[in-house]
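[audit] Reproducing an earlier prediction to check determinism. Same input, same settings, fresh worker. If the C-alpha cells differ from the archived copy the diff job will pick it up downstream; this log only records the rerun itself.
[audit] input (167 residues):
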Amino acid sequence: MNRIRGWWRRRRLTRARRRARARIDPFAVGERWRPFVRSALQARARYHDVVAGVAPGPLRERLGDIGRRIDEAVDDCWQVARRGHELDRARRTLDPALPQAERLARRADGAHERLSELDRQLEGAVARAVELAATAGDPLVLGPVRGDVERLVDELEALRQGLDELG
C-alpha cells in the first residue's frame, strides 16, 4: 500500500512540475532577467534532445535522472528571475534616495550576479553531459556531472528561497 501511495505522490509531483514548466515565459520578466530564463530553457531543450537520441539502457536512465534535476534547475531559475523582476519593479516605485530603495537594489543586484553565475554553471554542466552522452558507454562517467547538477540545483533553490523570504 505504501508503494502505491509513494508512486501516486511522485506522479502528482511530476504533473505539477510539467504544468509549472509549461508556464515559463521569458518575456514575462524584464530584459535584465530574460537572458537567464532563455538560456536555461535552451540548455534544457538541448539536453533532452541529446538524451532522446541515446539508446535505452543504463546510460539513458542515468541521463534521465540528471535531466529531471536539470528540469528542477530551470524551474528554480524561472522563479528567481520572476522574483528579481518583482524586486526591480518594487524598487522603481520608491524614491531612489530612500534606504529601502537602496536595499532592494542591492538584493536585486546580488540575485542577478548569482543567477548569472549559476546560469553559466548550468550551461557548462549541460555541455559536459552532452559530450559524455555522445562519447561514453559507461553510465558511471556521468557521476561528476550529476554531482555538479545536484549542487547547482541546491544553490538555485537556496537563492530562490532567499528571495522568497523577502516577502
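[audit] rerun output stored. Observation attached for the diff report: The chain has five helices and no strands.
[audit] end
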